[in-house]
Amino acid sequence: MKSITPYLLKFATVALILTLVFRFFLSYTLAAELFTLVWVVAMSYGLASLLRVGFLGEKMPISFHCTISASDSI
Description:
2 helices
C-alpha cells in the first residue's frame, strides 16, 4: 500500500474546502430560491474541481498501443 504523500494531502484538503464551499453556496441559493444561481454555483464547482485535478492531480502519461498484423483485413 502506498503511503500518504504531502501532495495527496494538498489534493484532499483542496477537495474538502471546495466541497464545503459548494455545499454552503448551494444551500444558500436554494434557501433563498435563487434557482438560476444554482447553475452558476454548480458550474463553478465543476470548473474548480477540474482545475484542481489539472494542477494537483498526478501527471500520468497516456499511451495507446495498437498493433496491426498483415493478416488483418480492412
